[in-house]
Structures are given as structure tokens and as C-alpha cells.
Design goal:
Layout: E1 2-7, H1 10-22, E2 27-31, E3 37-41, H2 47-59, H3 86-90, H4 99-113, H5 121-125, H6 138-141, H7 158-179, H8 181-203, H9 211-227, H10 237-251, H11 260-277, H12 280-293
Antiparallel strand pairs: 1-3, 2-3
Helix pairs in contact: 4-7, 7-8, 7-9, 8-9, 8-11, 9-11
Length: 294
């Protein structure tokens, strides 16, 4: 199913679904946390048609084309137990955090601040991708494979770690609570390995930070909210726009000393992963076939 749009009341959503049923379109409504109602359509090849009708209905619900007798159509009763209340089920628990996400945050704080103390400097050097300039993978070839991951835990100052940890908490917690702790651990390690290795090959070992992972989580949730029916994820389009603009600002050099390759690779990998897992490929293929056969 695909999301067609929002209506502001149950009465309006019922009337619009009743109208769609007379057009041979199966649809359901889902109540949101702000008391609006999402309209979901089964016939994905007719989603554009439904969205146009929804725009007209939202501006002129009394239009005669929408005046359908209740006897002419039966509104499907929606099984509310199948829907997820995002506020209650995802963010409603005030006790306890997602354990993997919390561990990632604590390790980052430890690696950024504690390992800067003179006593632990030697250990900090063991977390960089390499202690040598160049791109030869000396330590990793000798068995120090943890270096592929560990640069994500170190940060270049207070603002850097605060910014990354806030985003990590917001994004990773959602994924861990919905997909599970093993899933988010595998996901973060994969993003870290790809983003870190790409950055090392481009610029050498002098980089740190969780930004590549954060951008990967962002891309993943973006695709899940865009394509997955009844997704429990929440992410505003404005957030995606802001983060992409920030990435571009860094790419063009306005903000110096940024691991841009990490950002781009993380965002690309997370978006592809989310596109695949959400069923986006199937949805886009159906849309292509529909347009081609019109």
C-alpha cells in the first residue's frame, strides 16, 4: 500500500474512502498522533489519481462528485490493532534506552574525553584507522581489524560529539526499538566499515567521528518513511533537507576539516539499504510499469 495524503478528521476520511470505493479503489485510514488521518491506497498504480482527488476533496469536500450515498458503498472497518501508535509504542517508554545505542554513546564519550588524558594516549592511537600516513592498511593487514570500526568513537571536540550523539540517539534508538539490537549493531558496524575505509582511501588516516554512521541512519529512515506501508518510523522531510544541505556546505569547503567521504558514503549506503528493505524497488518498478502502459 502507498500513502496518498492526510485529512483532518475521521468524518472526512470516511467520506473520502467511501468515494474511493465507488471508483474501485481499496483504501484505509490511519489515525495519527495529531488527530489527523492518513489515507493508504492498495492500488499503487492509481496513487497519482488518488492524490489529485484528495487535493480536490481537501479544498472542496462538498463537491457533488464526492457526495456518495452510504448505501452505494461500504466503508471497510480498519483493524486499529494493526497500526502502531508512534508516540506510545516507539517513544512512549520513559524508562530504559536502546542498549546498543546507549553503548555507542558511552563508548564515544569515553574515547573522546577519557582517552585524551596523558595516561591513556597510547590506547587512543590504537583506535585510529592507521598510525601511518598513506593508504597501505599496515595495521589491518597485521590483524588489527578493529581499526576499521573504531574511528567512529573519537571526535574532534565538544560540539562535534554533542551534535553527533544527539543525532545518533534520535535515529539509532528508533531503528533499535523497531528492528532490534542485533540489527542496529550489524547496521552501524557495516556503515562504519564502509564509510571509514572510503575516507581512509581518499584522505588517509586523519579522520574521526560518527557522522558517516549518522548519515547512513538518516538515509535508512528516510526510505522507510517514504516507501514502507504503516511504518513506525518518523522523520520530517525538513530534517532530510537540512542534513543534505549541511552535507553540501561541507562538500564545497565552507566548513573545513570535514570527513566528506564518510558523509557521502554513509548516506548513500543507508539510503540504498532502506530502499531495499522498505520495498522501494518494488514500488518504483510498479510505478514505472504503470507509466509505461498508460
Amino acid at each position: 500500500m502507498r500513502k496518498a495524503g492526510l485529512l483532518t478528521s475521521r468524518k472526512q476520511s470516511d467520506e473520502f474512502i467511501r468515494f474511493l470505493s465507488t471508483q474501485g479503489i481499496n483504501a484505509e485510514s490511519q489515525k495519527q498522533t495529531d488527530d489527523s488521518f492518513q489515507i493508504w491506497v492498495e492500488e499503487e498504480d492509481r496513487i497519482s489519481e488518488v492524490r489529485e482527488q484528495l487535493k480536490l476533496f481537501a479544498t472542496d469536500p462538498q463537491n457533488k462528485i464526492f457526495q456518495v450515498s452510504k448505501k452505494k458503498s461500504a466503508v471497510k472497518k480498519v483493524d486499529r490493532s494493526r497500526f502502531v501508535n508512534v508516540r506510545r509504542d516507539v517513544f512512549g517508554s520513559s524508562s530504559g534506552y536502546a542498549p546498543v545505542t546507549l553503548t555507542l554513546i558511552l563508548l564515544s564519550i569515553f574515547a573522546t574525553f577519557i582517552l585524551d588524558l596523558p595516561t591513556y594516549k597510547w590506547l587512543k592511537y590504537k583506535l585510529y584507522y592507521s598510525e601511518y600516513m598513506g593508504k597501505h592498511f599496515y595495521e589491518i593487514k597485521s590483524g588489527q581489524v578493529w581499526r576499521i570500526i573504531t574511528p567512529i568513537f573519537m571526535h574532534g571536540g565538544f560540539l562535534h560529539i554533542v551534535f553527533n550523539m544527539l543525532w545518533l540517539h534520535q535515529l539509532s534508538t528508533q531503528i533499535e526499538k523497531i528492528e532490534g539490537s542485533r540489527y542496529i549493531l550489524l547496521f552501524v558496524m557495516t556503515l562504519a566499515a564502509i564509510a571509514n575505509t572510503g575516507q581512509y582511501l581518499v584522505s588517509g588516516p586523519l579522520f574521526v567521528g560518527m557522522s558517516g554512521v549518522v548519515y547512513g541512519l538518516l538515509g535508512y529512515i528516510w526510505m522507510m518513511t517514504k516507501y514502507k506501508y504503516n511504518s513506525a518510523y518518523t522523520l520530517s522531510p525538513g530534517t532530510v533537507v537540512f542534513m543534505v544541505i549541511w552535507m553540501i556546505i561541507c562538500l564545497v569547503g565552507i566548513i573545513p576539516n570535514v570527513a566528506n567521504t564518510e558523509h557521502v558514503l554513509g548516506f548513500f549506503c543507508g539510503t540504498i539499504w532502506g530502499f531495499w528493505r522498505s520495498g522501494g524497488l518494488k514500488s518504483e518498478w510498479r510505478r514505472y510499469l504503470y507509466k509505461r502502459n498508460r
